[in-house]
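Our preliminary data section would be incomplete without showing what the modeling component actually yields. Below, a chain of 125 amino acids is followed by its predicted structure, encoded as tokens that our downstream tools consume directly.
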Amino acid sequence: MTETFRIRLTNLKNTARMTQIDHNNSNDFKKQDAYLRAEKQLKALKGFYSHAFFYVVINLILIGVVAFHSNGHFWNFGTFSTAFFWGIGLAFHAIGVFAKGWMFSKKWEDRKIQEYMKNDQTRWE
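Predicted structure:
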């Protein structure tokens, strides 16, 4: 009986120490996590802006070349097909960058994690 009590007391002390350590490190972790997420979002934004820039420049050049050599057949689908299909890809890139948290946001992830942890805890109690 005494050994069981000592073991539980030791476990309680270790848990208290770990909680204190986790509490101190959690603020640093949250700051670092926020910084890394912001850095990742900035990288995605820069990628989209460069994609949009090259989309405009290259399609203006292609449409200009086609217009110069078209001999009156400028207004057909072939003239704008590259811009059209590349524009679809650019639209999906924009959705990926600007609407990233629309469906599966960080808050949603946190809620689901808490829900799974709660379900797991009640299953083992």
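The chain has three helices and no strands. Helices lie at 2-68, 77-98, 106-124. Preliminary results of this kind motivate Aim 1 of the renewal.
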